Structures are given as structure tokens and as C-alpha cells.
Amino acid sequence: MAYSIFILLFSFFISNTLYKKFIFKSSKKFLDMPNKRSMHIKPVPRGAGIVFILVTNLSSIIYFLIFGFHKIFLIPLAILPLSIVGLFDDLYSLKPVTKYIFQILVSLLMVFLSNLFINFNFSLLFLIVFLFTGIINFINFMDGIDGIVGSCMIIALITSCLILKIDQNYLFLIGSLAAFIVWNWYPAKLFMGDIGSTFLAAINIGIITQSTSYIVALGLLLVLGPCLVDPFTCVIRRFFYGENIFTPHRLHLYQRLKLAGIRDDKVSMIYILCTLLISLSNIFLDIKFTIGIFLVTCILGFYLDQYIAKPF
Questions:
Q1: Burial of 252 (C-beta count, 10 Å sphere; 0-12/13-18/19+)
Q2: More confident residue, 247 or 15
Q3: What pLDDT score was predicted for residue 235?
Q4: Which of 50, 51, 170, 299 lies at 20 to 30 Å from 150 by C-alpha?
Q5: CA distance 216 to 208
């Protein structure tokens, strides 16, 4: 216990220093300028996800050298191609097809490192990769207001690590991400950028695939529910409304809640509390209760969509 607390605090304070350095050294290269679909009004440095990615990968390499081969140490390293593409996307805005190719590559690597998918055919592999790339993009879509993705993802990470009894190098990620949330909370001084959001999505996928059964994996996936249902329903609605689902927009529920006048931190707290409720149900109860809580949060989302948010 003392060891875990030390690692968390060490990672937190080291990362906090690195975030400060990032603001002063890299803000001109990574500056996120507001545009017509942005939810912020002032330029903010983005790409700070590079800090928690570096911390996680360095700790993975150290653990790998000390304890030898283990799939759990390889997951952050396997995501590096996606992280590199995310970095270039934050710098130069890459074409979607380029990003999607690397999402497919990393998804295949997650399948290879998985404990769940041992025997499967090509059709199932296609569906799994489609699901994984969908999760990566949906989490990326949610990174639009202060504090929402970092906070929800840290809850999901802690939940997965507790249930699967994983700590080791992921304590470094949790500590580093906690430091990032301090800087990313309203009003944000840093954005994680695509490099950060796609990494967090992929790392959650990688850990979930270490589950001992599909039921356990389902419970952990439901913890991501508030950050997945919003973009999923948004894509479906835009499709049936005849809109181009690949064009930028401000139609996610969290965006329309802000456009209705609710401040960033209050919108984020709605998603955080919903994620936390599903997490606690998953940790202390069983899958039936977890599904029930998940459905309750969906009903809450429907209410907010119909009566509080700016109309779709």
C-alpha cells in the first residue's frame, strides 16, 4: 500500500513539473486556436497527453526489464504508433484515413495481446477491430470541454486495475493523469490533444482485453458508457437526419448542454458522476446491477437531451 501511494505521488509531482514545462516550451507549436466548432474561446496549448504517454511507456520499459515478459507491460508500447500519429495530428492535422489505418493497426495489436480473443475467425476479427476503432474515435470525440475525458478515463482505469488486480506501471499513468486533470479542469490551461485522447481510449481497451471472461470485460466496458453512448447516439441521429457524419459539428449532448448555458465543469461533473456510479456498481455489486445503473444513466442522458440541452 505504501509503495503504491509513493508511486502515485511520485508520478503526480514529476508529471506536474513536466506539464509546466510543456506550457512554456511547446505552447506555440501546439496552440489550439478556437474555431466555429470549438467550445473554448481562448487559445490553449494542446498535445499535453505526450507527458502521461512518456511516463507510462518509460515505466513499462523499466518494469519489463525488471520483471521480464508480460503482456500488461507491452500494451502501452504497442499503442506507440497511434500516439505518434496523434502527435503529428496535433501538429499538422492529418487526414482521417491516415489516422484510421493506425487505429486498425493498434486494434489488431490489442487483439494479439488479449486474453479474451484466442480462437476467432476473420468475420469476428473484423467486428472486434471495428468496435475497438469505434471506441478510440468516440473517446476522441468526447474531448471537447474541460476535464471530461481525463476524469472519466481515470475512473475507468482505476476500476479496471482494481477488478483485474493490475497495478505496476499503470500507477504511473494514474498519477500522471491526475496531475493533468488539475491543469485541464475548468478553465483549462492545457488540452491533452488527439495524442492523449486516443492513447487513453486504446489503453483502456488493452486493459479490458486482459479480463478473465467476457462478463468481466462487459462490466469494464460499461464504465466507459457515458463517454461512448453520447457520440454513438449522435452519429446515429446525424445519419438519419441526412447529415454527413464525418464533418465537424457541435451536436454531442455535452456540447449542447454547454450551448444551453451550463458551464464546462458542471457538464463534466454530470459525466464523471455517471461514470463513477457505474464504476462503484461494477466494483462492489455484480453485472446485473452494473447494467441497471448504466441504463439509469442512459435515461438521465435522454432527459437532459430532451429538456435541458440545446435542441439537436
A1: buried
A2: 15
A3: 95
A4: 299
A5: 8
- pLDDT, average across residues 110-117: 87
Of the pLDDT bands very low, low, confident and very high (cuts 50, 70, 90), residue 247 is confident
What local confidence, expressed as pLDDT, does residue 222 receive? 98
Burial class (CB in 10 A: 0-12, 13-18, 19+), 246: exposed
Backbone angles phi and psi of 31, in degrees to 5? -70, 125
User: Considering just the CA atoms, what is the radius of gyration of the chain in Å?
Assistant: 19
d(CA 220, CA 163): 9
Phi, psi of 160 (to 5 degrees): -65, -45
DSSP string computed for the chain: -HHHHHHHHHHHHHHHHHHHHHHHHHTTTSEE---TT-S-SS-EE--THHHHHHHHHHHHHHHHHHH---HHHHHHHHTHHHHHHHHHHHHH---HHHHHHHHHHHHHHHHHT-SS-SS--HHHHHHHHHHHHHHHHHHHHHTTSTTHHHHHHHHHHHHHHHHTT--TTHHHHHHHHHHHHHHHSSSPS---HHHHHHHHHHHHHHHHTT-SSHHHHHHHHHHTHHHHHHHHHHHHHHHHTT--TTS--S-SHHHHHHHTT--HHHHHHHHHHHHHHHHHHHHHS-HHHHHHHHHHHHHHHHHHHHHTSPP-
- Picking from 14-28, 86-100, 140-154, which range would have the lowest pLDDT averaged per residue? 14-28
Rounded to the nearest angstrom, the gap between the alpha carbon of residue 89 and the centroid of all alpha carbons in its chain is 17
Per-residue pLDDT tens digits for 192-246:
999 999 999 999 999 999 998 999 999 999 999 999 999 999 999 999 998 888 8
Residue 173 is which amino acid? L
Buried (b) or exposed (e) across 45-56, using 16+ Cβ within 10 A?
bbbbbbbbbebb
> Model-level pTM?
0.94
What percentage of the chain exceeds 90 in pLDDT? 70
